[in-house]
Amino acid sequence: MQRSVASSLLLSVDALRPLLADINPGRKWPSLNKSEFSTVEALNSFEDITTYNNFYEFGSGKKDPHKNATEFDPQPWSIVVEGECDKKGTYDLEDFVNSSMLEERIYRLRCVEGWSMVIPWVGFSLAEMLKKFEPNSNAKYVEFTTLYDKSRMPGQKTRLLPWPYVEALRIDEAMNELPIMAVGLYGDVLPNQNGAPIRLVVPWKYGFKSIKSIVKIRFTEKQPETTWNQIAPKEYGFYSNVNPDVDHPRWSQKKERVIGRPFWEPKRDTRMFNGYADQVAHLYKGMDLKKYF
Amino acid sequence: MPFVILLLAAINDNLGTNPVETLTHETGQWALRFLLIGLAVTPLRRLLKIAWLIKLRRMLGLFAFFYASLHFITYLWLDQFFDWYEIIVDIPKRPFITIGFVSLVLLLPLVLTSTSAMQRRLGKKWLALHKLVYVIPILVLIHFVWSLKADYSEPLSYALVFVFLLLMRFIYDRKKALQR
């Protein structure tokens, strides 16, 4: 793996990064297991992570979710599990998530718009959770749905997107060791604008696939319709793997703006699968990634 | 001046989480705003019977070009880092950048003929050339829309203002035509 000058600088800054965990002694999870999948790249600040968000349920501007999600109450919360599995039902988040399953996963997140961040998530393996629902042999895909409630998510009052927000993964992608269900960041509970109380993080795909505020999980036989793919099928594919060789029809994906770096610094080259090729490239062996973008 | 505000913000690290995006968006917006304000001069002049407003119009047009240039420089410098190969490939390949570039290029002849001397020299041709100010906002709005993912409310607002300004001219021209 090639190390550019830029990434070497990122690694050296890592030693200096202030952890909110150290600044915030009242955080919910003071000591979490660290994951082998965490990156050592410099973290983005808590401020950047919680004030620059694409979460149209709370407005389409980057600052809107931070402004408009203050009233949102993510408790109590339950997830409905349906479809091709043996343990269907409604699961209360409180009964479901206990601290012993949580670990810290520091993942890169690359937005389709061309910017990226590094976020210290608190979460657990998606695969471990899905196994508990006992998907059967017909389960070829997993579909996730966000809450649809205009009274709690004011951005849903206009039909900017065809609510509710839906995303999905192929079953082998979902069972990969990387995807997590995140319930926090920086050692504390997930802020509302980041998808409270529980969201998906799939670090090798464009950020819009990391669906937030999940209320339903469904195992399906056929490939589900995902929201951005519905809106603009030529621009947002089902797979949406981070890929510098496949441009968005209207802009290039070769480079990305690394949030947190000084603005006079050049953009960084985007890496195949957002730098997670070692863990996920095998899922796409033989697949034409220009066709299945 | 918006430029001063942006400069101060840049110095004080007040450009937000994605400073280049902020700079690009703000310079682009001000270019469009000055274009539209320039287009409002004649209708206002006729409505309020304030003749001297016409002197403002040249300045407004030049400001529009100034901010459009800053917008383009932001792209060349902070987005592409003067990677000329990439830029030359990018401009024709990405429709939204092509149309933005075309809008800027079309402003050039207007800027170069903006002096009173030029106006005198060109006479009727000057009027014909400067009709480009009706075309350029359309290109700019398409450029704006093509840069967005889903929420078109911003360019839509500007488009409504543009249509309203065109409508005012149309109504005036119709009135004048009927009076003859």
Which SSEs are present, and which pair or pack?
The complex is a heterodimer of chains A (293) and B (180).
Chain A: H1 5-14, H2 20-23, E1 33-34, H3 46-51, H4 64-68, E2 78-83, E3 89-92, H5 93-96, E4 103-110, E5 115-125, H6 126-132, E6 141-146, E7 166-170, H7 171-174, E8 180-185, E9 188-189, E10 199-201, E11 214-220, H8 227-231, E12 255-258, E13 268-269, H9 277-280
Chain B: H1 2-11, H2 19-48, H3 53-79, H4 84-93, H5 95-112, H6 116-122, H7 124-129, H8 132-146, H9 153-179
Helix pairs in contact in B: 1-2, 2-3, 2-8, 2-9, 3-5, 4-5, 5-8, 8-9
The CATH class of chain A is Alpha Beta
Tell me how many strands of chain A there are.
13
Most extensive chain interface and residues per partner: A-B, 23 and 22 residues
What's the overall average pLDDT of chain B, rounded? 91
Structure write-up:
The complex is a heterodimer of chains A (293) and B (180). The N terminus of chain A is likely disordered. Chain A contains nine helices and 13 strands. Helices cover 17% and strands 23% of the residues of chain A. By secondary structure, chain A is an alpha+beta fold. In chain A, the strands form two sheets. In chain A, strands 1, 4, 5, 8, 9, 10, 12 and 13 form an eight-stranded mixed sheet that branches. In chain A, strands 3-2-11-6-7 form a five-stranded mixed sheet. Chain A has a single domain, classed as Oxidoreductase, molybdopterin-binding domain (Sulfite Oxidase, Chain A, domain 2, Alpha-Beta Complex), CATH 3.90.420.10. By secondary structure, chain B is mainly α. Chain B has one domain. Chain B is 83% helix and 0% strand. Chain B is built from nine helices and no strands. In chain B, helix 2 runs antiparallel to helix 3. The N and C termini of chain B lie far apart (44 Å). In chain B, 22% of the residues are buried. Classes of the chains: A alpha+beta (293), B mainly alpha (180). At the A-B interface, helix 3 of A face helix 2 of B.
